[in-house]
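Note to self: the last two entries modelled the partners one at a time, which told us nothing about the interface. This time every component goes in together.
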Amino acid sequence: MKRILIPAAALAMTAAASVQAGKSDDVLNVAFTKELENVDSYFNSSREGVVLQRAVWDGLIYRDPETNEYKGNLATSWEWIDDVTLELKLREGVTFHNGEPFDADDVVYTVNFVADESNGVKTQRNVNWMKSAEKIDQYTVRIHLKAPFPAAIEFLSGPVSMYPNEYYAEAGPSGMGLKPVGTGPYKVTSVEPGRHFVLEKYEGYHDSPKGQPSIGTIDIRTIPDVNTQMAELFSGSLDLIWQVPADLAEKLDQMGKFTVANESTMRIGYLTLDAAGRTGEDSPFTDVRVRQAVAHAIDREALVSALLKGKSQVISTACFPSQFGCDQDVTSYDYDVEKAKALLAEAGYPDGFKTEFYAYRDREYAEAIASFLNAVGIETDFKMLQYSALRELRMKSGSPVSFQTWGSYSINDTSAITSQFFKLGSLDDARDAEVAGWLDAADSATDPAVRRENYSKALKKIADEAYWVPMFSYNTNYVFTPEVTYTPTPDEVLRFTDMDWK
Amino acid sequence: MLRFILKRAGLAILVAFTVSLISFSLLFLSGDPAAAIAGEHASDQDIEAIRRIYGFDRPMLLQYWEWLSSALMGDFGESYYFKLPVAGLIAERLSITMTLGVCGISFALLTAVPLGVAAAIRPNSLLDRFALFLSVAGQAMPSFWFGLILIVVFSIQLGWLPPSGTATPLHFVMPTIVLGYYAMPAIMRLTRAGMLEVLSSDYIRTARAKGAPEGLVMFKHALRNAIIPVVSLAAVQMGFMLGGSIVVESIFALHGAGYLAWESISRNDLPTVQALILVFSMFYIVFTFLADVLNAWLDPRMRAG
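The predicted structure of the combined assembly is written out below.
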C-alpha cells in the first residue's frame, strides 16, 4: 500500500493530545511493516527476520556494532587450525529457553543441518561455505569449510545462529517457526504467523556481549500502512516504529513529541549499465565515454539532500564504505552536465539517444535519476517492474540501464556486494574477466593485505570504467516515544537488549 | 426447479476452474516465481535450486494439473512463503474477512434500507436530499481516505476506538463502517427506486382504498415487493466484500484473506493465491447462485433462463 500524503499531514496536525505516560506494564509495542514468512531464521530472508533472530538466538561469535570488533558469544575463543578448519571453544552453562543445555552436539547438529543443501535453507550463501561440523569434546567443535573463506567469522557472528539439536530434530523448520527456541535474550511466547509476535525477557540469559535484556515484554504487530502505524503511535498503542519514510520522519521530528533517530544502512543505490552489450552489441553503453557521461549527469548530492536525507551519503564505490576491502580511493565523477554532453558527443551521440530504464523500487528516486539523464539528452523509457520480473529479465538478457539497490545482507565485507555482481554471474553486466579474477583472489585469500589489494584493484577498475554508477547509501528512521531510550546501529537491526525505559 | 439448480451449479463450478486456470497462468506472466520466492538476496544458484525443487522448470499445464488434482482431493499444499499448510492459513485469515463482511453488509442494509424507504415516502424532501448526499459521498470517497479520517477522529482526537488490529469487537467498528459505507449507496438507491415504483402501483392504491393502515401498506405490501432486487444486489455485494476488502484490511491491519491475497500475489506464492482465488470465486459464485435461486423462487418466469 502506497503512502498517502494528505491524511498523513492531517494525522500529524491532529496528534496533539494523547501520549500515555509511564510504561507501567513494561510492554514495548513495536510495528513491523512486512509480514514475516517464518520466524525460523534460516527460512526467512527479511529484515524483520534478522531482528527476531538476534533477539531469540545467539551466534557463536558476536560483532560489536560500535567498534566492529569480534567477541565470543556462544563460543569463548576460536582458532584457525588450517585454511579450512576452525576450532571453537564453547561457553559452558548456557541453556536454551526450553531447558535443553547448550553444548557441542547443538553446534554439530545445527551446522550439519543448515549446510546440507537439501534441507533448503533459504539464503544458501549464509551457510553454504560450511561443509560440516565435528565434535571434539563436549565444549569443543571444529567447523570444516568447503574452501578457504575469509568472511567466515563475519558470517558466524551474523546469520549463523545455534539451535537446540533435540528440539530442532523433532520440530523442524515449521515447528521452530511456530514455537521458536533459542538461547537468546528474549524467548518467544506467542506467534501468529506473519502478524503478531510476543517476546519475553529470558531471565536465564548468559553473560553475552549483546548485554542483558531490560524491557520485560516486546509485543510486535504487523501493520502494513505507515499512516496507521503513525496513528497507533499517536494514540499510545505503539511505542516504536522504524523504516519510517524521510518526509514523515521530518514532520514527526518537527512536532517534538517523539524521538526521531536516523541511522545509515549498508544498502546502496546504483545504476548498472550494459557495458558488455548484453542487450545488443550496438548498445551505447558499451562505450566507456557514454557510461562516464551517465556518471557525470547525475547530481548525487541533490538526490541525497532532497530525497534520501538523514545519514545517507554519496557513494562512489561499488560497495559500502564500512565494508572490509571497500577502498574509497577510486575515481569519483562530479556533477557536470556540460562534461556529460561533451562525452556523449565524443562517443558519437551529440543529440543523445533513447534507452529503456528499469527500476523495481523507490519510484521517486528512479524518476529523479531519469530526469537527470533526460537533461543531458539521454531520453529514458522508464519501466517499473516487480522485483522478480526485473530479475528474470536481467538474468536472461540484461538491461541497458537499471536502478538497483543492494543491502549486502548486513555483511560487513566487500565480498558481500562487489563479488556478487562482478564475477561473470547472470547479473554481471560488465563481464570483465580481469575484475572477476581480482575478486576471486580477494575472496579466497586469508591474508587481509592480499584481500585489500585485490579488492582495491577491482574497485578502481569498476570506477574507471563506470560499469556501475554508485549513487548513495540508504538510511532508516526510527521513531519512538520519549519513554524509550534507544540508539540505533548502522546495520538496520532493532536491538531490543539496547532498549530501556527512561 | 431442481433442473435449474443443477444447471446453475454445474456452470458455477466450470466458472471457478476457468478462473483458477487463468489466474495460474497470469502469475507466471508476472515474473519468475523462483526469483520471487528466493528473495532479493538470492544468488543464481539459489534461484536455480528453487526452480528445481518447486518444479517451475516443467510445463505450466503440467504444474496446473498437479495443483488441480491435489486441490480436488482437498489438499491445497503448503504456502511457498509461510511454509504452512494453505488450508489452515486461509481458514485463519478467512474468519476475519467473514466477520468483517457480515458486519459490513449488515451495517449497509440496516442503514440503507430504512433510509431508502424514508426517502421514497417523501421524495424530494430534506431527508431524501440528505440520503442522496450520503450516497454520492459514499461513492466518491475512497475507502483508504475515509478510513484514515475515521482513525484521526475516533482514535486520535476522541480516543474512543483502537486504530488497528483485531483483538476486540471494538477493533471492528471502524472497518465495518468503512466497508459498509461503500456498499450502502447502491442498496439505498435501489430500495428508494423500488419503493417509488411499487408505491405508485395499482395494488397499493387498492390497499389504501380499502382502508389498510399506512404502516401495513408500507411494510407488508410495498417493501416486501420492493426488496426483491435489493436481496440479489446485497448477495453480490457480499461476494465483493469477502474477496475485495484489501484496502480496508490493510489500513486497519486486519490481516484477513483479502490482504493475504494481495500480498501473496506480490510474493508469487502460487498455492496460496490459487486456493484464495478458488475460495473467492466460490463465494462470488455461491452468492450469485443463491440470488438466482432466490429470484427464481420468487419469480417463476426466471426459471426458464
